């Protein structure tokens, strides 16, 4: 059986896999005006760590979306254990089954780059209310990558391209976001050297060894390309 990087994250139940983890998410939302009437879409929710935090702290209306059935199962288990009323959607971020202009915020943490980027950004735009905010934390090339670097990335993550910062901004503006700000930028080499919290794990029973190999390959790529790739936090207003 062939597995993807997303399969490995799902079966190991990795929460806070995005750079900065939940601590970074907390910092971002601390500066936002979130109230109990705020509607937030956690696009690519994984095991539901961010969704649960937002619902618990801000008592807001949260929808958790993920395409992977194992991730959704683990997210639902988290919400049930914490008695949280969070709606879940199992679907692709490229085709979100909700009406136009539904959400005040979308939070997307290390998700968009693994999809058809323009299609996903357009779908986020569609389901955001006018004046709504997209917070997108995503892999970003520090410099244009060589073909050998892209091959290494493609072999592990199944993606053909990692945009540089200016390309991300151009894509966001092309889709229609009227204001695009970079809240934070970092290279993986700098990020790795910081004393950061570790991700959490909710491991499925009977893990196929192939899944651990994928995570090991992920570690190898991030080590070898640590000075060439990083991440950005984009805050875009519809």
From TrEMBL:
<protein>
    <submittedName>
        <fullName>Class I SAM-dependent methyltransferase</fullName>
    </submittedName>
</protein>
<dbReference type="InterPro" id="IPR023576">
    <property type="entry name" value="UbiE/COQ5_MeTrFase_CS"/>
</dbReference>
<dbReference type="InterPro" id="IPR029063">
    <property type="entry name" value="SAM-dependent_MTases_sf"/>
</dbReference>
<feature type="domain" description="Methyltransferase">
    <location>
        <begin position="40"/>
        <end position="132"/>
    </location>
</feature>
<keyword id="KW-0489">Methyltransferase</keyword>
<dbReference type="Pfam" id="PF13649">
    <property type="entry name" value="Methyltransf_25"/>
</dbReference>
<dbReference type="InterPro" id="IPR041698">
    <property type="entry name" value="Methyltransf_25"/>
</dbReference>
<comment type="pathway">
    <text>Lipid metabolism.</text>
</comment>
<dbReference type="GO" id="GO:0008168">
    <property type="term" value="F:methyltransferase activity"/>
</dbReference>
<dbReference type="GO" id="GO:0032259">
    <property type="term" value="P:methylation"/>
</dbReference>
<comment type="pathway">
    <text>Phospholipid metabolism.</text>
</comment>
<keyword id="KW-0808">Transferase</keyword>
<keyword id="KW-0949">S-adenosyl-L-methionine</keyword>
């Amino acid at each position: 059986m062939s597995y993807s990087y997303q399969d490995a994250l799902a079966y190991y139940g990795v929460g806070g896999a995005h750079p900065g983890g939940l601590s970074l998410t907390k910092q971002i939302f601390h500066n936002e005006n979130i109230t109990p009437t705020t509607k937030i879409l956690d696009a690519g929710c994984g095991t539901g760590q961010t969704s649960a935090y937002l619902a618990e702290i801000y008592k807001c209306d949260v929808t958790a979306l993920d395409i992977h059935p194992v991730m959704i199962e683990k997210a639902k288990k988290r919400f049930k254990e914490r008695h949280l009323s969070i709606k879940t959607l199992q679907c692709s971020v490229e085709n979100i089954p909700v009406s136009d202009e539904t959400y005040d915020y979308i939070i997307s943490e290390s998700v968009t780059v693994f999809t058809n980027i323009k299609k996903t950004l357009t779908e986020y735009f569609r389901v955001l209310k006018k004046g709504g905010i997209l917070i997108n934390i995503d892999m970003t090339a520090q410099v244009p990558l060589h073909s050998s670097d892209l091959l290494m990335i493609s072999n592990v993550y199944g993606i053909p391209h990692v945009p540089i910062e200016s390309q991300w901004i151009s894509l966001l503006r092309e889709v229609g976001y009227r204001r695009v700000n970079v809240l934070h930028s970092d290279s993986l080499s700098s990020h790795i050297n910081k004393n950061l919290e570790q991700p959490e794990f909710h491991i499925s029973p009977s893990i196929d060894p192939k899944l651990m190999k994928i995570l090991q390959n992920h570690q190898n790529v991030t080590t070898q390309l640590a000075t060439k790739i990083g991440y950005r936090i984009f805050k875009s207003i519809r």
